[in-house]
């Protein structure tokens, strides 16, 4: 008999993926250039040239046995040391290679981090708006995900609701900053307040509460700002990262968990994640991609196009009359829909070949997400369609 739980999941397909598939099909009818597809967060800028040169050199001049051989179960030691050194230079931390666990992207990092610090029946808290896949990620561990309602004024943490929800069954808190879908960047003030509250609750409950920090958009921050490094605020932090966005390598599936050296049992958590891999069949990212990324750790793609696109859309949306919090980073913007039913709003937008994602799956009703990782020229051409849609459907 097939697994009934996974069979049931077939009826709950990702809204984002379904909209992306619709956009592709619509593009075959009218030309994809004429479909303003804001559905999928797939980077639109190429990887840095150094990455391609590194991979060509690896395959041309490297040791084939090392390049194509099995990675050690905890990752390639030289790669782990390089990641630790990079983090220490950038953030003033004290990682060693033994605190770094390479994974298949940020999703693999989250899967290991969650399992390392919870058991079935435990509770993990996250904050709306949140990446919808957190739900199956957490459910797969046997833990329960509690979602704190959004502070829609600025999409920082709703601390009043958070503190009311905290209880002794909470073993981990999951944050995503810069945030998908809102584009919010958690401030140093927010992170300081979060750390103080978690520290107090650890004492009150008599057990650790781990902070799982999901940071794949860390390098995409606007207005000359940077993302404060959450692990510098709270000892029990597991940092989950991916080079999908910073190096535009989503298809390579390469990321890591970094265990704060100051965390409880810091020296045990990395080998524990190796044991988690045995039970999940994870078995590390490919050796060649680990080796290649290690050579370009401090580089990024040209990420400036995302800030250009954000400013174009923010100015256009506010001019039209949308209520929208200006993003501090990522390549997403999260305006309020022009009616309470965000799904109905996005269905009407499809008539104008505007592919927008309704907000219900992000845990916030009445909003929509636009992933503006598309060509700037296409963003500009979409603005008249947005204006026409808002005028004809809502009288703006």
UniProtKB/TrEMBL annotation:
InterPro entries: Aminotransferase_I/II_large (IPR004839), PyrdxlP-dep_Trfase (IPR015424), PyrdxlP-dep_Trfase_major (IPR015421), PyrdxlP-dep_Trfase_small (IPR015422). Gene3D superfamilies: Aspartate Aminotransferase, domain 1 (3.90.1150.10), Type I PLP-dependent aspartate aminotransferase-like (Major domain) (3.40.640.10). CDD domains: AAT_like. One of its GO terms (molecular function) is pyridoxal phosphate binding. The keyword Transcription regulation does not apply. Keywords: Aminotransferase, Transferase. Signal peptide: none annotated. It holds the Pfam family Aminotran_1_2. Residues 39-383 form the Aminotransferase class I/classII large domain. PANTHER family: ASPARTATE AMINOTRANSFERASE YHDR-RELATED. NCBIfam families: PRK06836.1 (NF005305). This is Aspartate aminotransferase.
